[in-house]
From TrEMBL:
The organism of origin for this protein: Lacticaseibacillus paracasei subsp. paracasei Lpp123
The keyword Flavoprotein is annotated on this UniProt entry: yes
Alphabetical list of Pfam families matching this protein: Nitroreductase
One GO molecular-function entry: oxidoreductase activity
InterPro entries: Flavin_OxRdtase_Frp (IPR016446), Nitroreductase (IPR029479), Nitroreductase-like (IPR000415)
Keywords assigned by UniProt, alphabetized: Flavoprotein, FMN, Oxidoreductase
Name of the protein in question: NADPH-dependent oxidoreductase
Domain Nitroreductase residue range list: 13-77
Family to which the UniProt record says this protein belongs: Belongs to the flavin oxidoreductase frp family.
């Protein structure tokens, strides 16, 4: 099988849980969020909300509750939440049915 760059990249993906003690610039964060919003999805829906956690006390609570201690370390913390309620409200407001999503 001849692998293209995208497949090769995915096959070499690694999870990193030790981050540098630096913050991303506002421009970089905006670019990353724009990319996430333009990511292809079924039926062209972005069924998620993004929360950027910057408060160290909240990060510590999330790390403790989730038992993922690395969340309280360096780097940025973004939480992606599946938001089916939003699409249900938008669909209802447009007079449409969610049956097509099934």
């Amino acid at each position: 099988m001849d692998l293209n760059d995208t497949l090769r990249h995915q096959l070499h993906h690694r999870s990193i849980r030790q981050f540098k003690p630096q913050h991303l610039s506002s421009a970089t964060i905006r670019t990353l969020l724009d990319v996430a919003q333009h990511t292809a999805s079924s039926m062209y829906l972005q069924l998620f909300s993004v929360i950027h956690i910057i408060n160290p006390e909240i990060r510590a609570q999330i790390a403790k509750i989730s038992t993922q201690t690395y969340l309280n370390g360096n780097g940025e913390l973004f939480i992606f939440i599946a938001d089916l309620n939003r699409v249900a409200k938008l669909t209802a407001a447009a007079g449409q049915s969610l049956d097509r999503l099934g």
